[in-house]
Design goal:
The complex is a heterodimer of chains A (228) and B (269).
Chain A: H1 7-23, H2 27-43, H3 51-70, H4 75-98, H5 101-110, H6 116-144, H7 154-185, H8 203-224
Helix pairs in contact in A: 1-4, 1-8, 2-4, 3-4, 5-6, 6-7
Chain B: E1 2-10, E2 17-26, E3 31-36, H1 42-50, E4 57-62, E5 65-66, H2 72-75, E6 79-82, H3 95-105, H4 110-123, H5 139-151, E7 157-161, H6 169-184, E8 188-192, H7 196-202, E9 205-210, E10 213-218, H8 220-225, H9 238-243, H10 255-266
Parallel strand pairs in B: 3-8, 3-9, 6-7, 7-8
Antiparallel strand pairs in B: 1-2, 1-4, 4-5, 9-10
Helix pairs in contact in B: 3-4, 3-5, 4-5
Classes of the chains: A mainly alpha (228), B alpha/beta (269).
Chain lengths: 228, 269
């Protein structure tokens, strides 16, 4: 069922959890929120599929908390900061893993009234990430075949990595130019645009909207009145 | 001698098997074509040779020494790779610097570096572009710059991945001449290709990969005169097909041979 929700519901759910994570400040409340988000990921079939991404977020959150602790933060504050980071980002895995990019664009344009150019720019950016990772691998392989080894201390590694970054950037620029030309040739920017699939909310989406509104009100009430 | 000993390979932990128990030797000065249908695993073989992939079982040996665990950077001392898209590796502001990148990584400096770079540029016929920006040159020129980069590292083996695809006839001829020249200089050229004209006309050996195995390993004349290349998705070169229509159906490895046979058959000149 979580997969069947239309993109706007998933966007609101992702945005809603980010707001709840900002409002809540106790580690226990944030842990409960994280458990709920992990449950959503599990139910939607995204948890096991993206377990590496979840672990990476966990590691990043840990280091965020650690840096805050080293910087003189209170232990509870640091734990809360790490959990908040997790809570704010976890559901993006659900959003991006269960929504087609063209549906996301359609939803942004039709329901959120974002101009098509901006919506397209956002989704094209997302689509570019796996391409960029693939390209990075290919350039690194080409340079490795010419004897480039990522060895030595951190500074040496950074210096050597420039031999990968430079061709990567040049190729990315050339790719974006090709994409721009391809868009122009296919009439990008026309006044009237239609979308093939309907992204209008249905019954389950309206129930979700109601639940989101109630939970948001409850979280704000809990934080302000009950100090959760 | 570079060898693959009982090498098997699959992508990921539970990915489908790409290659099974591959046993291949590459001797010095050979001109070997590795061919087969798309997705047959021919590029994977060259990636295993260069260290870009590690076999799931079996060994890769260089002159009897096990180099299976060595990465591509370490193996660059004896094997170079020219990718289908040469601009992937180009980032320096001049061709000279670009060609010099590999030997610089090997520790060459000063006059020694200049000498190997100049020599490689001359061999690959790109010396006239020495001070030009490599990315603005044609793909054929970029391909030859990439070959020069490998030559400058004094590699014994060079892998070329589809170097002639998308090239015009003139550029194809220049690349073919360069590959023959490398072979004559004692470099083993390993060519991944679908271009049967080059396979028949220039290669000393052809390896066909099909159904995860080495389906054929022999000379091009045996493949095209006794084998059944069409079973592996390979086309006969035009010269071979035309040669069959001549009296005695001689094997014509290239158009020059066909013309010679034709003249003989007609009693011309």
């Amino acid at each position: 069922m979580m997969k069947q929700l239309v993109p706007i519901t998933k966007i609101l759910l992702t945005g809603g959890t980010a707001v709840w994570a900002l409002v809540l400040h106790r580690p226990l409340s944030l842990v409960i929120l994280m458990a709920a988000e992990l449950l959503i990921l599990l139910v939607s079939g995204q948890l096991l599929k993206n377990i590496k991404a979840v672990l990476m977020l966990g590691i990043f959150a840990f280091f965020l908390g650690l840096i805050e602790y080293i910087g003189g933060g209170e232990k509870e504050e640091c734990v809360a900061a790490a959990l908040r980071m997790m809570d704010m980002t976890l559901l993006f895995i659900y959003l991006l893993g269960t929504t087609r990019l063209q549906d996301l664009t359609a939803s942004m344009v039709q329901q959120m009234k974002i101009p098509y150019e901006y919506a397209f720019m956002f989704t094209a950016g997302l689509r570019f990430i796996p391409d960029f990772i693939e390209e990075n691998k290919a350039v690194a392989e080409a340079q490795a075949c010419r004897g480039l080894a990522m060895e030595g201390n951190f500074f040496k590694k950074v210096h050597r990595y420039m031999s990968i970054v430079r061709p990567l950037m040049l190729r990315s620029l050339s790719r974006s130019e090709t994409m721009a030309l391809s868009l122009e040739l296919r009439g990008f920017g026309g006044a009237h645009r239609t979308f093939m699939d309907s992204v209008s909310p249905k019954g389950a989406d309206y129930i979700c909207f109601l639940l989101l509104a109630l939970i948001t009100a409850g979280v704000i009430y809990g934080r302000v009145i009950l100090n959760f | 001698m570079l060898t693959l000993q009982n090498v098997s390979f699959h992508y990921g932990e539970n990915g489908p098997e790409i290659l099974q128990n591959i046993q291949l030797n590459f001797g010095r000065g050979e001109f070997v074509a590795v061919t087969g249908r798309n997705g047959s695993g021919k590029t994977t073989i060259t990636r295993l040779l260069t260290g870009l992939e590690k076999p799931t079982s079996g060994r890769v040996c260089y002159n009897g020494q096990d180099v299976t665990r060595e990465d591509a950077a370490a193996r660059s001392r004896f094997i170079g790779y020219v990718f289908q898209q040469p601009d992937r590796q180009m980032f320096m502001s001049t061709v000279r610097e670009e060609v010099g990148f590999g030997p610089y990584q090997q520790g060459k400096r000063g006059a020694e570096l200049d000498a190997v770079v100049d020599e490689a540029m001359h061999k690959a016929d790109v010396f006239r572009f020495a001070d030009e920006y490599p990315r603005t040159l044609s793909r054929g020129d970029q391909q030859r710059i990439a070959i020069a980069s490998a030559l400058a590292m004094h590699t014994e083996y060079i892998v070329l991945d589809e170097p002639t695809s998308g090239q015009d006839g003139r550029e194809k001829k220049r690349l073919s001449a360069l590959m023959s020249q490398m072979r004559e200089a004692g470099i083993t050229v390993i060519l991944v290709t679908h271009d049967m004209d080059i396979v028949a006309g220039q290669c000393t050996r052809v390896i066909v990969i099909a159904d995860h195995h080495v389906a054929f390993d022999g000379t091009p004349d045996v493949l095209f005169s006794e084998g059944r290349p069409e079973e592996w998705g390979l086309a006969y070169p035009a010269s071979v097909r035309m040669g069959r229509s001549l009296p005695g159906a001689p094997y014509c490895k290239d158009m020059a041979t066909f013309c010679e046979m034709y003249r003989k058959a007609r009693g011309i000149g």
